[in-house]
Amino acid sequence: MEEKIYFTSGEFAKLCGTTKETLRHYHNKGILMPQKKGENGYFYYEAWQFFEFDLIGLLIYAGNSLEQIREYLQAHSTERFLKLMDSSKERLLRKKAKIENMLRVVENTVSLASLGLTHDGTQLTIVPCKTEYYLTVPIKESDYENKRNLLDAFSQFWAHSAENPLIGEYPYSYVVPEESYSAGDYAIKYIAGKLDEPSEKQDIHTKRAGRYGMLFHYGSIDTAAESCRRLCEELRALNLEPSGPLYVDELISNHVTPEEKDHVTKVSIRVGR
């Protein structure tokens, strides 16, 4: 008969590259039980349990809970192992998609902040823009008079964006409809989030491709209407007719610095029909 080799908790923890506290936690959860208890009160593990510890580590790394692992180890088989691996794969793929989406958001947000730091946009420029898509949520006129209502509008926007993983930038964007500024009202009417690709949702707004007049607003977003008005006036002075919505994209905001004087916002509008 092959002689059994036993290790104390400390020896086994060292062998597995873990701690006695972790082994004790597994013991309490019923997933890695010591094989015997000595007269000295010490718990002992057998050598083969090294591979069981290794399996537990794999299953945890794959996103399984200790309860799921305990249930599997109570009656493990090849069929149940493959089923557990399939469910782990599906969970990891969902997690991978979330991580990839967040990487896009981080990269785009860094790019926007960098543009805000390096671009001196006090002068009107005309630039070509490609088609872009925004998830939008309306802001009522009365919301500006009640901070709670205004925060509710932002909360509604993030509830929508949580259901749409295509949001590609973190800072807020805003939209001023053509019918508003044509009547002399340059106040923001929609909260918006730029998307990486189009969506079938009804509240998706399409920004048309074309030539856009653009300038940069410095200071609080609350005063961006001044730059929106100036942009339209300067375009008309050049016999260039603004059309479609005004787009107000935050580059550097409270997310970056609390100093409103350092906030930078890009304001743009399509030129011509």
From TrEMBL:
Query: Which InterPro entries is this protein grouped with?
Result: DNA-bd_dom_put_sf (IPR009061), MerR-type_HTH_dom (IPR000551), MerR_fam (IPR047057), Reg_factor_effector_dom_sf (IPR011256)
Which residues does the UniProt record annotate as the domain HTH merR-type?
A: 6-75
**Cited SUPFAM superfamilies:** Probable bacterial effector-binding domain, Putative DNA-binding domain
The answer on whether this UniProt entry bears the keyword Signal reads no
PROSITE patterns, A to Z: HTH_MERR_2
Keyword field: DNA-binding
Q: Does the keyword Hydrolase apply?
A: no
What GO molecular functions are on record for this protein?
DNA binding; DNA-binding transcription factor activity
Per its record, how is this protein called by name? MerR family transcriptional regulator
Organism of provenance: Hominibacterium faecale
